[in-house]
Write a structure and sequence with these properties.
Elements: H1 16-30, H2 32-40, H3 48-71
Length: about 80
């Protein structure tokens, strides 16, 4: 994400509290903070290769468990 600079300069005899209030308002209007908070937990889509690898692993595990059940080395329930 590109850096966004927000700059507020003091107008005449403006108080520091009012300057801070204007800065806070500009930050809120720019939607920087909510966008960053939303992007914090976003995850990349899994690649086709990874999806395929996971599916093959799941199939392999299922086949192994079925084989163990048929051999009587594993119960059919959880």
């Amino acid at each position: 994400m590109p850096a966004i600079n927000i700059q507020v300069s003091k107008n005449g005899s403006e108080s520091g509290a009012n300057l801070l209030r204007r800065f806070t308002r500009k930050v809120q209007e720019s939607r920087i903070v909510p966008n960053l908070k939303g992007a914090r937990y976003s995850q990349r889509k899994l690649s086709h290769y990874v999806v395929k690898k996971n599916a093959l692993r799941k199939i392999s595990k299922t086949q192994r468990i079925e084989h163990l059940k048929k051999m009587g080395k594993m119960r059919s329930g959880r």
